[in-house]
Amino acid sequence: MDADTPDPICPLCLRPIPPGVPQSLHHLIPRLKGGKGGPTVLMHHICHREIHAALGEAELAREWNTPEALRAHPRLARFAAWVAKRPPDFTSKVPGRRRSRR
Hints:
two-stranded antiparallel ribbon, alpha+beta, 10% strand, 2 strands, single chain, 4 helices
C-alpha cells in the first residue's frame, strides 16, 4: 500500500488495520456451511477470533452473516466497544467459551 491509500477498516470494531497488524479473512458464510468461494471481509485477528468464540458456524450461516448483523450481536457489540478503545495493533487472548473441534 502506498502512503496515499488509507488502511482498510475492520468491519467489526471499525478501527483501521495498518500493515503488519495481525489480520485474517472472515467468511461471512462459513465454508463448511456453503460459503466456500463466498464473500469474505478482512478484519483484525482478535476480532475474528471473538466472532468464532461467540458464535457457532450454523448460527453464523443462518443469522449473523453480514458485518451489520455481527456488530448488532450483544456479545460482539460489547467486545467491539471495548476493543475500539485500544490501538489498532492491540492483541489479547479471547476470553469466554471455547468450542470443541471434533
